[in-house]
Design goal:
By secondary structure, this protein is mostly helical. The chain is 74% helix and 0% strand.
Length: 86
């Protein structure tokens, strides 16, 4: 399977987050110019896409790349949605 469908899903999810009240507050503060918030959002979205691609490309291999990709994916989402548990 191509990585394309997975990318489309991730872009849709992250764009929904960007358009949410939380995403607007996080990525579009009123005191920052438009190019600054888009850079932050684009970087965050790209990190997720790269981690998903790494997992996709190495899923059937017997090495640590999948686990590393999954950890990166989780930590990238966790940076935006920190856990309330310790």
């Amino acid at each position: 399977m191509s990585i394309g469908p997975l990318n489309e899903i991730l872009v849709s999810i992250t764009n929904i987050i960007l358009k949410s009240a939380y995403g607007q507050d996080l990525f579009m503060p009123e005191d920052v110019n438009d190019s600054a918030y888009l850079t932050d959002f684009d970087r965050w979205q790209e990190d997720l896409l790269q981690a998903a691609e790494q997992v996709h490309n190495h899923w059937t291999e017997d090495n640590d790349l999948v686990e590393t990709g999954l950890d990166q994916f989780e930590s990238t989402f966790s940076s935006l949605f920190p856990s309330k548990t310790t």
